[in-house]
Design brief:
Blueprint: H1 2-18, H2 27-36, H3 61-96
């Protein structure tokens, strides 16, 4: 899976360099959507996710299965588990120090 993911990432980067593939959003787009509170339309859209997208229709069936497994793993590890850890830490801080004020900042991903 690691070799497959690396190969797909390199292919995607080569396509970007060659101009045959473009990222569908700019940094300015991200800032605008962030300021408007509308990240679901651009960040969490599977096609524009910051998590590498290895799933595409041109892959053979056995590679598509590998791509789906990697995609699920990344989403679970990089998004869901991270959010759960952050949530637990915030909750613990608030419970341990109920008389203090806190400011928490979270990334859009």
């Amino acid at each position: 899976q690691v070799v497959f993911a690396l190969n797909q990432t390199l292919l995607q980067q080569e396509s970007l360099r060659a101009g045959s593939f473009q990222i569908p959003y700019t940094t300015e787009d991200l800032i605008e959507h962030y300021n408007c509170g509308d990240l679901s339309s651009i960040i969490f859209n599977h096609d524009t996710s910051q998590v590498p997208n290895f799933i595409n229709a041109t892959l053979p069936a056995h590679e598509r299965i590998t791509a789906q497994e990697i995609d699920s793993y990344f989403r679970q590890e990089l998004i869901y588990k991270r959010n759960e850890r952050m949530g637990r830490r915030v909750k613990e801080l608030l419970q341990e120090h109920p008389d203090k004020s806190f400011f928490f900042a979270f990334g859009a991903g």
